């Protein structure tokens, strides 16, 4: 692997420190080995051994993490579309989505459930270098209670779809054990409902404390984690009390549960999935009609979510981007929209939104010592952006502005000129 020297960029290192102009970053093998201004080229390199890329002020930043990923959801209109899509076609779409994700500047992702073993197979193929994709924590099928929002077939019809139905502590334990046996890095439970379903609304709580605690015990006994879908206040309370590690949504939390989350902020991650709400409000009527969208209550739900994410953010809780991408109106590739929502709707600074996607992303990936910031010794998961996201956070959504994407020092994308000679300066 050739060494690489990124020269004269605006460095946003992911730590939250102010941007540094005129920055150089030296990458050797898969790691960052030097950061500074006017870095010298090590004498050990012949011209053909090092790529020198002049950035002329473009931004250097860490690769981002998508913390609520569904690679096996693709262009779906209904949840049933996910259930009934043949697993072979699901696999093809998921491989395509993995490539789309990393080429969007997201070099890591946390799965929030998948069809069958698809995520696990994709993770392993990525790690073997057989396909292109981000670093990945793989999930299996969602674990759901009977009558939950993904339980959509008549009682006499059973489909091997996106969920496994498990009721009671013993069934939950058995299901969680089976998913870890298949190679999952984490398991997702649907603890609350979802308001696109008339019989299991988002304000409903579908699992008991004992059931969720059973899942957590099985995960933690294996050094693994539990990820939950929890919108209602009671469901989030159960998750915190049970020791859940990652909570998605958390829209409707009351003051008591807010305080509980804050008290446990050192171990918890909150992934609100804002773009699902925003995109459904914006575009859902095109597919279902305005009356159906109004019936979901998503407009009011978004107001609750923004209020609660604002106060969680201000209280120092780690709130991460991840937007339930994979439906027609919320397609793969738009992952950076969540950073825009964090800034324009939640009230984060652009720097804090970037930290949420990078530094916090490495923490949720359990790779804080290896990724998430541009620091000496870290893996070279790096994005070069033609523009300054601190001035315009939406620029991260424009793939044409993502000029270089590196994963472990390897080019995923490079649209800039590469030179092999430059004047050597004194270190």
Annotation keywords:
6-stranded parallel β-sheet; globular; alpha/beta; 427 residues
Structure notes:
- The protein is an alpha/beta fold.
- It is built from 14 helices and 17 strands.
- The protein has helices at 79-84, 87-102, 118-127, 169-181, 209-221, 233-242, 255-263, 274-283, 285-288, 290-296, 298-314, 337-346, 350-357, 359-364; strands at 3-11, 20-28, 31-36, 50-54, 59-62, 64-69, 106-111, 135-137, 142-144, 163-165, 186-190, 225-230, 246-249, 269-271, 382-385, 402-407, 410-414.
- Strands 1, 2, 3, 4, 5, 15, 16 and 17 form an eight-stranded mixed β-sheet that branches.
- Strand 1 and strand 2 form a beta hairpin.
- Helix 5 (209-221) packs parallel to helix 6, helix 8 (274-283) runs antiparallel to helix 11 and helix 12 crosses helix 13 (350-357).
- The two termini are 23 Å apart.
């Amino acid at each position: 692997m050739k060494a690489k020297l990124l020269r004269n960029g605006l460095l946003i290192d992911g730590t939250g420190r102010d941007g540094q102009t005129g920055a150089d970053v030296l990458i050797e093998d898969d790691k960052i080995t030097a950061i500074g201004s006017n870095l010298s080229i090590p004498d050990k390199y012949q011209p053909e051994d090092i790529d020198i890329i002049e950035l002329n002020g473009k931004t250097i930043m860490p690769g981002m993490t998508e913390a609520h990923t569904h690679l096996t959801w693709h262009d779906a209109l209904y949840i049933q579309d996910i259930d009934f899509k043949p697993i072979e076609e699901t696999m093809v779409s998921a491989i395509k989505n993995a490539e789309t994700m990393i080429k969007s500047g997201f070099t890591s992702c946390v799965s929030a459930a998948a069809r069958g073993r698809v995520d696990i197979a994709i993770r392993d193929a990525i790690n073997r270098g057989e396909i292109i994709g981000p670093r990945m924590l793989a999930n299996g099928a969602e674990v759901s209670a009977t009558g939950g929002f993904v339980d959509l077939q008549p009682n006499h019809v059973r489909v091997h779809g996106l969920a496994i139905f498990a009721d009671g502590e013993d069934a939950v334990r058995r299901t969680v054990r089976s998913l870890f046996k298949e190679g999952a890095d984490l398991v997702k439970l649907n603890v609350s409902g979802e308001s696109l379903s008339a019989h299991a609304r988002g304000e409903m709580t579908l699992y008991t404390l004992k059931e969720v605690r059973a899942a957590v015990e099985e995960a933690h006994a294996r050094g693994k984690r539990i990820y939950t879908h929890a919108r209602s206040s009671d469901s989030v309370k159960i998750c915190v009390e049970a020791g859940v590690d990652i909570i998605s949504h958390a829209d409707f939390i009351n003051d008591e549960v807010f305080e509980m989350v804050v008290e446990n902020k050192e171990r918890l991650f909150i992934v609100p999935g804002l773009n699902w709400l925003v995109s459904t409000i914006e575009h859902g009527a095109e597919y279902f009609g305005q009356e159906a969208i109004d019936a979901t209550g998503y407009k009011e739900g978004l107001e609750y979510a923004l209020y609660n994410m604002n106060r969680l953010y201000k209280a120092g809780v780690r709130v991460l981007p991840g937007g339930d991408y994979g439906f027609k109106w919320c397609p793969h590739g738009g992952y950076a929209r969540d950073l825009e929502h964090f800034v324009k709707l939640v009230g984060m600074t652009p720097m804090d939104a970037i930290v949420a996607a990078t530094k916090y992303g490495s923490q949720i990936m359990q790779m804080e010592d290896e990724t998430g910031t541009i620091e000496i010794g870290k893996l070279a998961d790096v994005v070069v952006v033609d523009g300054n996201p601190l001035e315009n956070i939406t620029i991260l959504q424009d793939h044409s502005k993502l000029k270089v994407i590196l994963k472990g020092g390897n080019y995923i994308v490079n649209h800039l000129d590469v030179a092999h000679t430059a004047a050597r300066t004194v270190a």
